[in-house]
Amino acid sequence: VEAEIPDAQKTAWKKHSASGFTNKEDFEAAAIRHIETTLARSLYNCDEGAAYGGTALAFRDRLIIDWNKTQQSHTFADQKRVYYLSLEFLMGRALDNAMLNVGLKDVARDGLADLGFRMEDVIGIERDAALGNGGLGRLAACFLDSLASLDYPAWGYGLRYRYGIFKQEIINGYQVEVPDYWLDFNPWEFPRHDVTVDIQFYGNVRKYNDENGRQVSVWENGEIVTANAYDVPIPGYNTPTTNNLRLWSSKAASGEFDFQKFNSGEYEQSVHDQMRAETISAVLYPNDNLDRGKELRLKQQYFWCAASLHDIVRRFKKSKKAWKEFPNQIAIQLNDTHPTLAIPELQRILVDNEGLDWDTAWSIVVNTFGYTNHTVMAEALEKWSVPLIQHLLPRHLEIIYEINLHFLQYVERTFPKDRDMLSRVSIVEESNPKMIRMAYLAIVGSHKVNGVAELHSDLIKTTIFKDFVKIYGQDKFTNVTNGITPRRWLHQANPKLSELIASKLGGYDFLKDLTLLHKLEAYADDKQFRKAFQEIKYANKTRLANYIKETTGVSVNPAALFDIQVKRIHEYKRQQLNIFGVIHRYLALKAMTPEQRKKMQPRVSIFGGKAAPGYWMAKCIIHLVNEVGRVVNNDPEIGDALKVIFIEDYNVSKCEIIAPASDISEHISTAGTEASGTSNMKFVLNGGLIIGTCDGANIEITREIGEDNIFLFGNLAEDVEEIRHQHTYEGVLIDDGLQKVFDAIHNGMFGHSDEFSALTNTVVNHDHWLTSADFEAYCKTHDAIDEAFKDQEAWLHKTILAVARMGFFTADRCIEEYAEMIWNVEPQKIKQNGA
Ligand code: GPK
Asked: Ligand 1 pocket, 563 CB below 6 A?
């Protein structure tokens, strides 16, 4: 390609080619130029918003220079690439991350100071990119950071929602959802008006025989919607590699209007068609760990899968390689079952459009895809009704049936006498209406299936996917324990701790090899180090206390024990256990004399998280937390002994303030329900300890950091079924302490008891989540925490050791495991000066 360009053109280009700033002067020049020209502001109306805009645009320019180099270099090298398909990318803010990853935050800070601005204020202007619900979406964001930081040629593919996860407001103690329109100023995306894909829905399938007598299927007469690409640069840490996140936006096929309709007087209809098309990428579905089966959601899934695959196939075809090379050039990872339609879609492209025979095509498909499962809970496993798919995607339904036929024939050959097995593993559930089981389709269409923590990966093999292990053998199923990026979750969220660590480890290499943290073990008994570590924790708690004061008006004492549970509100995550425990503590404090109360360890119980808008029970929990807070925080007898805080609108940027400020964080799901959890990793990495159940990654965290440095309690996963069985046949035994809590609620201590009867009744009637069975152990463990916290030196010893032993939980390790076990891809270094 290079040789075809005339020398004169090259010279002109090279002379003016953008190079990007590296010092304060050049940063200021770039920022001011953007403020004056791109934003049309002057010295006299440059507010913080404009300063943010100018800074972000200056960094965007820099990122895009590296982005261009990276993409060019990847294209020339033509190595295998990874495509990470996820309906959610919970990115949070981009500016701080970009500044740190390219190593120019100090330069920008000095430059902004010259212009009269404080870095923290400028960073605080940015809206979170909140295109996700919780753990699954944030995992995708951490993985993008690691893929770029480790120099893997990788792209993310997602949807460009006009509205991300809703903004949560708490009004009179209740959650109210407010739309999050985040795109009015988003300097981080590049609209690619030239990159469009036409996507078909509905229509019919026509069959004919070609000249060789082969039956050909044509899917036609459908409705067309156009997918438009928006690219978001993903900078690696301390490397020029800048990968791409491509987000698709939907619009009406003819661009603006359907001119025929417009001219024939059907103006309203043509506008309506346009709005209908734009609806596809309008809004993120706000459910976490729940499948609701809405038609528009299926449309989103197909729209995004089809656009992404078209893009991937287009890129592959440019290389003119044989189709059998496809899986050697391309690995596609399915983040949960949401992108499972990519499997029949690739099969359709290969068979219907490219004329490959079924078996050849299918072997390409299976070798291309890998599937990550994120939950064992039945209510979260996706199923789509056959009539719905038939209507929306008639050709895909045929292909899914054909895939199922081949699969069931194979099963029958392997297990000739097991008729039950066939109906159990069929991709088509024989219900009324019939349903397509997306997880089964994902397993059948992938070469590897992984869970996200050891216990979870074992559970999927012994419960929901047991039959598939028999059919395919153990090797198809594997584990990749989740991780987090230490760039955002240590260096960015907790710069002081990162600096302290760097001062002992002789630099910041640990940010790219987190196992180096083990060298901190030598400082666990070092008096000075402990003191510095403790001061940082105190400063971070003060930062959070100030935030709480500003946003809720409640003063909390940074010297108190900060006990934090922030995550989506879900019964299985058991925020109800936490708030019942808080009430139990409050009742105990009320029963004490003032002298006794003074001896108690002061606590601040902090909650945060969103409830899905239709999740009544989760909303009751939020309401109860807020009402308990109102009563406890205004009780003059209690004072600093206990404060109960609900932080409104928990999101990624708030987590960056919250995670460094915990003494204890709560990861207390019913054993066997939380696939991994990732906030558990964030809190320990930032010098806090965990109270947790033997669930998800808590188990591996315990193994790594040592059982003296974590507070585990509660029934084990293997015993849960038995206890539920007892509940059904013998009734629920309500713990005495919990009964007192329920009595207080019923007596109206926290407002009208009707408001909370659903919450208490579900425990009394079924206690599916073992709230009562685990209550006593939970409260006792909190008492043990109070005791342990009193000995600050011993506490510091534990927290420092824990930090030192968290190296395993970096997302970099995850990416290396995926690359080796599932994707078979190699990193590719980008030279500082182009390809
Ligand atoms: C799992 F099934 C789902 C889902 O719909 N949303 C979601 O965030 C989470 N998850 C798990 O609940 C966590 O345990 C896990 O750490 C996270 O996915 C990432 O794997």
From this structure: no
Reduced to 3 states (helix: H, G, I; strand: E, B; else coil), residue 85 is strand
Report CA-CA distances (Å) from 290 to 312, 338, 378, 430.
30, 12, 9, 22
The residues, any chain, with a CB within 8 Å of residue 741's CB and separated by 6 or more, are 580, 583, 584, 587
Catalytic annotation on 682?
yes
Residues 34, 127, 299, 374: which is the catalytic one? 374
554 CA to middle of ligand 1, Å? 32
**Which residue's CA is the closest to the ligand 1 atom numbered 13?**
677
Structure tokens at 509: 């290499």
Name which of 12-26, 326-340, 495-509, 561-575 the model is least confident about: 12-26
Q: Domain 486-809: give its CATH code.
A: 3.40.50.2000
One of 196, 226, 670, 678 is an active-site residue; which one? 678
Decide whether 78-93+128-379 matches 486-809 in CATH topology: yes
- Would you list the DSSP string of 622-649? HHHHHHHHHHHHT-TTTGGGEEEEEESS
573 is annotated as an active-site residue:
yes
Q: Does residue 301 carry a pLDDT above 90?
A: yes
Rounded to the nearest angstrom, the distance between the alpha carbon of 556 and the centre of ligand 1 is 32
Known catalytic residue at 374 = yes
**Angstrom distance (rounded) from CA 556 to CA 575:** 21
* Lowest-pLDDT range of 16-25, 172-181, 540-549, 557-566: 16-25
Tell me: pLDDT of 790 over 70. yes
22 catalytic per annotation? no
Does residue 134 have its Cβ closer than 6 Å to ligand 1? yes
Mean local confidence (pLDDT), 388-415: 98
SS3 695: coil
Is ipTM over 0.90? yes
Q: Which of 677, 605, 687, 612 is nearest to 647 (CA)?
A: 605
Q: How many degrees, rounded to 5, is the angle at CA 330 between CA 63 and CA 297?
A: 80
**What are the residue ranges spanned by the domains of the chain?**
78-93+128-379, 486-809
Q: Which is it for the CA torsion 374, 782, 569, 134, positive or negative?
A: negative
- Architecture of the domain delimited by 78-93+128-379: 3-Layer(aba) Sandwich (3.40)
Contacts of 392 (CB under 8 A, 6+ apart): 201, 202, 295, 298, 299, 302
Distance CA 759, CA 620 (A): 7
Cβ of 88 less than 6 Å from ligand 1: no
740 part of the active site: no
Q: Is 132 in the pocket of ligand 1 (CB under 6 A)?
A: no
Ligand 1 atom at minimal distance to the Cα of residue 677:
16
Q: What is the pLDDT of residues 414-443, one digit of tens each?
A: 999 899 999 999 999 999 999 999 999 999
CA of 634 to the centre of ligand 1 (A): 36
